[in-house]
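Anyone? Bumping this.
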Amino acid sequence: MYLYDDFDRTLVAERVAEFRDQVRRRLSGELSEDEFKLLRLMNGVYLQLHAYMLRIAIPYGTLSSQQLRTLGHVARRYDRNYGHFTTRQNIQFNWIKLEELPDAMADLARAGLHGMQTSGNCVRNITTDQWAAVAPDEIEDPRIWAEILRQHLTLHPEFSFLPRKFKIAVTAAAHDRAAVRVHDIGLRLHSNGSGEVGFEVVVGGGLGRTPFVGKTIKPFLPKRDLLSYVEAILRVYNQFGRRDNIYKARIKILVHDLGAEAFAKEVDAEWQPIRDGALALDPALIAEVTARFRYPDYAELDDNPSEVAQARASDRRFANWLGNSVANHKVSGHAIVTLSLKPEGGPPGDATAEQMDAIADLADRYSFGEIRVGHEQNLVLPHVEQRELPALWRALDKVGVATPNIGLVSDIISCPGLDYCSLANTRSIPVAQELTRRFRDLDLARDLGRLHINISGCINACGHHHVGHIGLLGVEKNGEEYFQVTIGGRADENAELGALVGPAVPYAEVADVVEDIVAAYLELRERPNEIFLDTVKRVGVEPFKERVYAAR
Amino acid sequence: MTSPLEQKTRITGPVVVTANRLGDGAVVYRTLDGHWTTHLAQAAVVTTAPAASELLAGAVADDLGAVGAYVAPVRLNKDGGVQPGNLRESIRHSGPTIDLPGILGF
């Protein structure tokens, strides 16, 4: 966990007081909606189809049990008893009243939670690997760098009115779980030839209307230069980014139009004069931030304790969960446990207040009071002793978050879609729900292996459909809901955009189409462990297209 | 951004003016007597562009009652009842098409 200092606590508390006054002035008519809208958006408050929506940042996806309980409290007291975890390590409450928002924000602030940097044309919540500090393949804790960036960029006056929103993600593992190559800036910590750890800097990735995989403009950036280099990128973007056309305003368009090499030269010209100035990171500051992260005092334990072996042998459901939802930890005798928020028939990423409370209690008991939120819209208990896994599984099963479908076909990433969102063209959640029913057979899901379905209800791509192994994009045609289908996308270290399978299909047929694609994969794969992506890579889109459209 | 009043009102059938109530964001409809109602059946239904523009102008001027006013299509039943004119408006009127979490169990 990161421990907030007095500066952070004061900042958040003052922000609540300011917002309370802004709401009072709006409700009394002193502020018009045009004046107020910008202020509410700077606190993560949107107006959606049915109500106001409050988006709360979960910096680098790390939550304390107390914070999760507070989210449960807000869901219960101010909303309709649930919250929605998003694809960017945020949580959204969909039914909140403007009149009650200041009180809700005050309750959140007491737990160090807020909606700053979750909306508007600023640097949004900085995301990272939900397995940070526990993944065996990690070089170091990436959250320290996300935190340094958070401190520097929160309410940064120069970057509060960028041409468009700006998203940064950091990873420090060989396997990229943070999708850094489809962010405005992606940072990958790695070691250079001489053993020094620094950043590969990737710029101009993004999804939405014009998707791009980011380009590496700096293969190795020393740690001391992180702030100055990011600042240089933001300055170039602030100066040259398109403000005349919202659809061309993201940095990816600038990088594409200039070319990565020319863009890098602009950044370098901006960077050289400032790199040795006030933004050069002082080792003492890095040490100070690092010291504010508290790490568990792990017990010395061996891997594979007898309790787990016995439970695995005697209970097939436990064995399936263990094989699917439990990952290796960097400390022996411990495990990383992913909690599925994708039950059969459930809206992806939603959790009730009761589930939040129960998970917070389980985190206290089994995971040093810590929970993580992943961009796949699941939760993680990052510090579980392996010998406790059988007891934890029984408890999670009761809470409804032990569906062993992590990374499988029913672990669907989805935006809220037209059921909530004022931007959406089509619904997304009912499609996800129907697919979880079609693929309820977990034996089949395991046989299919790793297969990610991503659904977006409009071109803004909050469901990251371009990088779904199977991507579904909702489009409207003559007032009817249709879906474009792509295959072969991926968001990891080998990020690629999916390829269109063919013409859009009607809403009523989209689940059938996904079943057809999956059936085609089963016929086309060369061996049982050739995953869907590899089959698509090997045979291309055409065989899938033939299968989908032959009967239509 | 173009003000709703500056947008050309194109009407091909009956319409209402709808918005979200300021205090809680609830979906509301403009009435003939210049108020807001949460009941579509009580909304003013107009069928011409000038009438829609006039209704919208009154709605936009009431910045304290509701926000984001716009013209939305409706369908009229044979018995005179009013129904939302498209899926988006149906969802705004009746709520999400899914069961909200909490109904599934836990």
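Late reply, but here is one note on the structure posted above: The mean pLDDT of chain A is 97.
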